[in-house]
Write a structure and sequence with these properties.
The structure is a single chain. With 170 residues, this protein is α+β, with helices and mostly antiparallel strands. The chain has 2 domains: 53 residues, Thrombin, subunit H; 101 residues, CarD-like, C-terminal domain (Methane Monooxygenase Hydroxylase, Chain G, domain 1, Up-down Bundle). Helices cover 46% and strands 21% of the residues. The protein has a 5-stranded antiparallel sheet with strand order 4-3-2-1-5. Helix 3 runs parallel beside helix 5, helix 4 crosses helix 5 and helix 5 packs across helix 6. 24% of the residues are buried.
């Protein structure tokens, strides 16, 4: 995982609670008589601009988008066998949400892998589908930035990987 904590306007970054955004500016602002350097991040999809103190960026989990190597490691996880623990759904749902909100692409890939259901075999419950879609959106947005394609194209490619994996096991 990239450990570079320098951010410049135009950089794509990942913020754990919101996914991929773009740094619009580094601004100095006076707050309670103290001068703060803030990173302004725009999340177009959510129509949200987030400002994070530069000195808290690392602690908040803000990071550069994954490298191609990190993305390949996540894709390898997607191709693996689902590892679903036999515990109550509510506990698993909390664990999956925590993995998504960690901002770590490999964790997000694990959630997608574990919750993917081939439509020919079975259906997901409503809450499984909600968590699956959240994880897929997060991973697809990062995949799209790294591979310079649209999020829709990225989603289609990721779903194709899952279908191919699933069809070889039938």
């Amino acid at each position: 995982m990239s450990k570079d904590y320098t951010f410049n306007p135009g950089d794509f970054v990942v913020y754990p609670a919101h996914g991929v955004g773009q740094v619009t500016e580094i601004q100095k602002t006076a707050v309670s008589g103290q001068e703060l350097n803030l990173i302004a991040i725009n999340f177009n999809k959510d129509k949200l601009t987030l400002r994070i103190p530069l000195n808290s960026a690392q602690k908040s989990g803000l990071r550069q988008v994954s490298s191609a190597e990190d993305l390949n490691a996540a894709l390898h996880i997607l191709k693996g066998k689902a590892k679903v623990r036999r515990v109550q759904w509510s506990k698993r749902a909390q664990e999956y949400t925590a993995k998504i909100n960690s901002g770590i692409i490999e964790n997000t890939a694990e959630v997608i892998r574990d919750l993917y259901k081939n439509p020919a075999i079975g259906e997901q419950t409503y809450s499984e589908r909600q968590i699956y879609e959240q994880a897929m959106n997060r991973m697809a947005s990062e995949f799209a930035v790294v591979n310079r394609c649209s999020q829709e194209e990225a989603t289609l490619q990721l779903e194709q990987i899952l279908r191919d994996k699933s069809s070889t096991r039938l």
